[in-house]
Amino acid sequence: MSLQADRGNMASRPEQSKLNRAAILSTILLGGCRGPQSVLSPAGRDAEVLASLFWVLLAGAVLLWLAVNGLMLFIAHLRPHPHSRRLAEALIIGGGIVLPVLLLTALLVFALREMPRQREMGSGLTVRVTGESWWWRVEYLPEGSETPIASANEIRLPTGSRSEITLEAREYIHSFWIPAFGGKTDMIPGRTTRMSLEPTLPGQYRGQCAEFCGESHARMALVGVAMRPDAFARWLAAEAAPAREPTTPEARRGREIFLREGCGGCHAVRGGPAQGTTGPDLTHLGGRATLAAGTLPMTRQSLIDWLRDPSAFKPGVRMPAYDHLSTADMADLAIYLEGLK
Amino acid sequence: MSATDLPQGAASSDILDSPMQGVWPPTPAMLAEPVDPDLSRAQAGNLRKAWETPRGWRRITAVNNSHVGKWYAMTALAFMLGAGVLALLMRVQLAVPENGFLDSDRFNQFFTMHGSAMMFLFAVPMFEAISILLLPAMLGTRDMPFPRLSAYGYWCFLIGGVFVLGSVLFDAAPSSGWFMYPPLATESEGIGADIWLLGLSFIEVASIAAAVELIVGVIKCRPPGMRINLMPLYAWYVLVVGGMILFAFPPLIAGDFLFELQRSLDWPFFDPERGGDPLLWQHLFWIFGHPEVYIIFLPSIAIAAMVVPTAARIPITGYSWIVLSAVGTGFLSFGLWVHHMFATGLPALSLGFFSAASEAVVIPTGVQIFAFIATMMVGRVRMILPMLWIAGAVAIFTAGGLTGVMVALAPFDWQVHDTYFIVAHLHYTLFGGMVFPVIGGVYYFFPVIMKKNLSERLGRWSFWLCFTGFNICFLPMHLTGLLGMPRRVYTYSGDLGWNMLNLISTLGAFVLAAGILVFVWDLIRPKGRAPHSARNPWDAGTLEWTHDVPDEPWGVRSVPYVTSRYPLWDQPEMLARMDAGRFYLPDAPEGERETLITSAVDAVPQHVARLTGPAWCTLVAAAFTGGAFILPTFKMYLPAVLCGIVAIGAIIWWLWTATARIPEARFKDAGLGLRLPLYVSGPKAPGWWAVFITMLGDATGFASLVFGVFFYWTARPDFPPPDAPHAALLPSLAAACLFLASWGATRIARGVNAAGSIVPARGLLLAAPILALAGAGALFAAVWLPGLAPTSHAYPAMMWALVVWTVAHVLCGAIMQAYCLARSLAGRMTARHDADLWNTALFWHFLIVTCLVTTAMIALVPRML
Amino acid sequence: MRSRHDSLWYMIFAPGIWALHFVAVYGWAATICAKGAPYGLARIGIAAVTVIALVLILWHGVLAWRQWDLLDDGDHVHARPTAGDRREFLGHAGLLLAIVALVGVVFVSLPAIFIGDCR
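Above: the input entities. Below: the structure tokens describing the complete assembly.
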């Protein structure tokens, strides 16, 4: 992976996550607003606008809260003697009607102007994301291309341009959300919704399903990666290519086990006989940062743990357990899968 | 001549058609005349006997508002504690990342039940409980207009609540969220979703019953002289909230109806594979769900509107402004529902409307808060304990309101929607807007309810524990949400920066729980030996503080003549005169429970109403209504139908024996030289108003189904499918004509009967139900004959749903027509005593609209779309 | 027939207009956008409905102002038990509701100005 500005790192290798923990602790002490899934560390045009908007709103809210409650404290405790009725009535009119109308009009106009901007049509790349139970099917459609490039659980976007995101859902309603890039949009069975995102800062960020979708709602995360346009183009070309041939004997044996166990009934590894479409496309599985939609870091050990008992990590998961495989078989299978970069 | 020039009281058109005889309004001399103490004692004895509560185990047949209200409140409190325990268990699970305390399914059941129970089993019923308990006292009336209806509503609530909340103990609770979004909820296995739908529909029906009762109570049961501009603010809020329930709950009931048809009969309303759309449910749910928030908030703020003037010892400043605020909020709250759906990808233009309305609702809400502050400014505030809770409520609520302004901006909501930011926001509004004012209200009104005092010391402890605990729990959640934590996740990974915040929230939740426990202990600790409280301990000005200490069963000794917003402040002799029985209805010589019915705007006395007393039939009706709703959960359809029949039988028995009874005399001496009729029918009778109000709600439910048809038309290109069979024209036309005939027969029967031609009226009332049933048959044939298969597509399913809804109502209408016929034959309905027929005709006015719209919707509209 | 001086229905006339305006605007926009009709139609319809609603609310507000009759005695408390106070109270509340409804209608029509398509 060629990720230079790895700012908001997500769950990955253990030592890294320890490092993250230290980093996060220090950021909490420093202000606590940063994080891999934070609305307040934006890396996209829409998220930047909304983060700034939040700070303005927060300042206003704090001021108004202090004014109202300070006034109450003042008249209840500090000067609890009767004030003039005229003043009190002016307060109702001023505080209840005039001030809110002015402030709300300003806010509303700002929001109404911002809304179409955030929903502008994307240019160039279209990414179709389908909410599955409980993972993300991702298909890239570069401009002019008809055949989608299949991927899963990770969405990469070029910086500096607005990409169009088309959203669908299979079984249940989900919601697509990568806070660093922008707001969320629901994915609804029977409907096609859309949004557009314009990442500005290269890096890796975390997103998560935001609409309750059943047992493994908590286990439906995804990785959002913003890349410079040239790096993105190279990556997309690689992603479009068929799977890399296994090079080591273990990996080759792993592929045999993969096919023998019928994994290809659900999963596709392009360039081979496995062409299933029920589960995530695994052609470049090893190149992703996480396994099982953000549930586990992409390591050999977690592949083994996952294959042995997926429901231990993801309640209700549709994938069966492969706990009948011998330790050696399992190791080879994991080596094969890990090698699918 | 303008209304101002008329003598007092005579201005209203009410008085012109009022059949009262004697003196109105009472003269000062009449009011000042003393009552003979012996006479007063004898009268008090009669009243006590008439209003006596059954003893021992028969106590459960009691229907007095003071009993039913207490049961209602304690049951709602118990459900709240149950739902609160679920919240604590969830907080334990979330205290640390990757926790294994609760598994995913259990956690989902818990948050579903926490939300559902807090909304349906605590917040709304608590409003009903407090209102049933206190509204008659505030209005100086003896009881609610339909005491048995309150009791029926309570028992329905108890049975439904135990059923729904109890399911969590059997690991069978619903687990799709309190919003029950399809397809997740329609596809979910087990009976959880059915428990939610049927159990809560049952409770929604009880809520509508309570709303009807409260609206009629405010409009028709005010004390003589209490014009609309003198009404206690609490009554204004009750009026508004009652109206909101009528327009908010029926869409949900209509949604439940469709939902359960999908679950049990596989009619695909929400299945996109067969022409359905999951978003229809979201619309119907939130058309209910957002007004619901204000249904919870307004009555609690109404408590504040009673406490603040007492604490400041001055009439409320800006009475009209608060009325504006209540009514304005009531209206605007119906234009907000899509802000729960900002992320569903609707056109930005549509979102804009709802964003705008969501901002606009801030204005009346702000007016409300500033009116309180203005009152405090003008008066001299005493920080009595209830006022402390109200002040805490304002502090919390303003924070929730300000975050509400933020999330009403659609683009900002796209970020924080469905995160812990929203969890924080909604708990700030609900604790500040409901829990704190209600607890403050309990401290304030406890002397009225129990004739004892709560502990000042425990109350302050409880307040500070709740206040700090609440803020420790929920303030950090704003940040948790901004750091990206979504709602409804049973766990989270440890490297996202959420750990410490969640731990703090969990600690805060336990502090809050401790505060609630202190309050509950204060409430339920034995107080047998404690002295009675003073009669008016806070020196308040409104009528509930004329209550009797020690307790008396009659509500008020005599119904006062009111000329002020704060009669206890402005009418100093009033209390003594009430106690002496100087005012209206001081006696009950016939041993009947009676109360005064007055005109809607100016509270001119119109009628002495005989109220219903203790009864078993309400219990039987509630138990079997429960069976009719609960048994289908277990697919026991036949027993459910039988239960339904028994329930209807019990209700008919109750109506037959206890309502619209022909009195022994036409007029009765109501006291102070006023003679009022004992029997009225039509718009002067509370029963007519109850039918009118119920049918407004019913019409809303039907309108929701019609909305559904148009929704599908806009949302789905295949609605109706191009080659689909449509309902048959001829049977539809026949149905419409038969319904018109039945309606006409009913209406004419009313006129003919009133003119004294009893036999022709009976003939019409015999023909009317036959016509109605024939019409129902024709309507059924209209969808049956062309072979509309409801499981094949949402279009035929929707047509069938309209027919089923209408036919069910027609059956009800036919029963009412037959009931009138039977009453006439039994001599219980005569030319003058025709309330039943008035009510049936009114029901049919609404029903005929439903029938005609249905026939048009199935036979004409699809052919034009 | 009741006069506007003693009817609650007149008091809620203005917010009722707001509600009808809201339903009309929302329904119209949803239909136009769902059926792919030209967006200009949506704007024209919304503008027309808004003008009608504003006129009705203003008209009602003027009537309510007259009914309130503040300037005759400066009374804005209306706490006396007279028909006159009840009349003025209903006028006052009606006027305030008209103001809120007016703001509501203007707010709800703003999206049509700032949002230029159906996305």
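Note for the figure: Chain A has two domains: 1-81+119-240, 249-338.
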